[in-house]
Structure formats: C-alpha cells, structure tokens
Amino acid sequence: MTITLDDVRGLLSIPCTGEFFTPPANVNEDLAIAAAVELLGKLHERRYDCAARAYLLHLVGCTILVDKSFTLVSAKYLFLFQDLDSCGKWAWGPAALVVLYDYLRDSTLPATKQIGGYLSLFQTWIYEHFPDICKRDMDEHISSMPRMFRWTAKQTSGNVAYYRAKLDALRDTDIIWAPDYDQNAVTRFQSVSLFTGYIRWCFTMVPYLPERCIRQFGYTQHIPPTPPMLVARDVDVEWSMYRNSVRSLRARLHPAAYPHECVEGYIQWYYRISHPRMIPYVAAYAGPSYDADAGPSHDADAGPSHDAGPDTSCTRCHAVGGLIQQSLDLHMGGPEDEMRVLLERALYISRGGDYQ
C-alpha cells in the first residue's frame, strides 16, 4: 500500500492534473533578493498582489511543500506565483506527493534524523486506511472543507515496538482498501490517479506505480511488471499524455470481488521480493534437542524446576502466531473461507485474544 494521487485528491481536495514546475536553474542569494523585491515589494498599486503572493508562499511552505526546517520556505517557490492568474496550472497534487515520497525515501536511511513533507497528509492517510492502528476521533465531515479536517489525533502511549507489532498483526480484513472519498467530496475521482510512470516537482522525480497497489482502486491485485527505467524518458511529455497510460492499465484490470482480492501467486511473489514484516518471524520449531544415543531425557521424579529460567509461554505463543500468520499469508481463500476464518481465530488467540 502507499499514498496515491487519489488519496491526495480525496484528503486535500486539490487537483492532480496540471504542469510540473521547473524553477530557475540556480536560485542564489542575489536572484532570491531580486525576486522578493519584484514579487513581494511594497509598491502601493501592487500591494494586494504582493500580499496574495506572500500568503500563498506561506501556505504551500507550511503544507504540501514543507521541508525539514518547518519554518523556512525555499526562495525558488516565489516563481510559482509570478503570475497570479496562472497559479491553477500547476500540478499541486503531484507536488505534494513528490515531496512526501522523497522524504519518506530518505527516512529509510539509518543516518536520517528528521523527516519533511506534508506529514498531516501522511497521518490522515493512516487514519483512513488503518482504523485500528492508532487512536483518533472522527468529526462530521463538512462538505466545503477537505476531508482531512474530519480527523483529530488522540494522545497515545505506544512506543515503536508496540506499533511494529500492531503492523505485523494486521489482517487484510483490518484494512480499508478504498475509502469512499467521493462521499461529500469537493473534487471527484480523476483518472490521472491511474497514471503509471514518473512524477516530478522542481528537479526531483519519483516513480508512481499504481499497479503495485491496485486494490486501493477497487481492482484485483495482480503481479505488477518491472518498474520503468528513468533513463531516456521525457517525464513531462509522458505526464501530458497520461490518458494513454491510463487506458493501457485499465485494459488489464478486473474489478475485485472483495476488497483485498489478489490473483493466485501474488502473495508468494510479494514475500519473495519484499520485506513484509517489521519483526522477523521466529524460527520454525525443529523438535526437541537430545543426544541421539541416549534419547530424550525425562526425569519423572524431578518435579518442576525452579532454576529453569523465565516462563517461555509468551515466546511459544509468539512463535505459534508467526507460523499461523505465514499460513494465512499463503492461503488464497476469501474472507468467508472456512479455513481462513479458523486461521484468523487461532492467530487472534495466540496474540492474547479471548478464546471463549
């Protein structure tokens, strides 16, 4: 799963079509000062335009284009508002996604200490798709406001280990794969969300591959093709012709019979090419360890040992839960499949659930 252009559209109510922005190649201090004087000056006859530019620069710098400083805005974004009448031509949805994708990619590196990007978008995306991961309140959605404003965070006490375990315990039925963003929405679904290729903002390009999370659009998940290479590609031209990409993808899609449906072999493929768990599986049980000649030792008269160390029941339950989870991941039955229901029940009990 990932944040898609449809999530951006649904949560922020901003358009996902338009042109990619290319700033001047070298925005040095002199150029930044000159642009500020020209676009943010205090000439009386231009005061309203200057005030509008200052507000818009502040708005995007605090939201979709925020960096790690959270207090500074890059001078290159001044040129977004050089012509106020044409601000609507920019691809604001992809802009938010490129910046967030880029910072999320950096966050996977061990040396990274901070993260940028519009984290409120990331947070509300989690609220929409993973209702049981964290505590939050949902207010009545006002149709004139972006959907993200209906969520209010609540204080939690979980640490990193807690959330890793929560993520690993997720079942496919615990996820809202395709939220109904069109209910009381300011904007409607845009086919550009199914574009496959690269999206760009300034000089940063990131791959956008909806085929890897097509269940979020209501289709059966298939094994996606190899991602396209960036070399020798005109990203802007491909984006302007996104309808060709959308038509090609839709021709290969099939509506899902149930939200998490996937083709046979997909789960096995995914486990082979990815890292699907935060906490590695406990090694499979290999049987008791004993000397081959002497056989296993059973001292019936010894009674319970007080030096055997801590109780291992929790470790055993964790190991059993890991094996059940592996079985679930490999089982292709739908949500009503009897075997799947039994496995999910066993997994629930192994993780401390009520067994009555």
From TrEMBL:
Transmembrane regions listed in the UniProt entry: none
Query: Record's InterPro entries?
Result: AminoTfrase-like_pln_mobile (IPR019557), MAIN-like (IPR044824)
* Ranges for domain Aminotransferase-like plant mobile: 48-270
Q: Which GO terms describe its biological process?
A: meristem maintenance
Query: Sorted alphabetically, which PANTHER family does this protein's record hold?
Result: PROTEIN MAIN-LIKE 2 (PTHR46033), PROTEIN MAINTENANCE OF MERISTEMS-LIKE (PTHR46033:SF8)
In its UniProt entry, what is this protein called?
Answer: Protein MAIN-LIKE 1-like
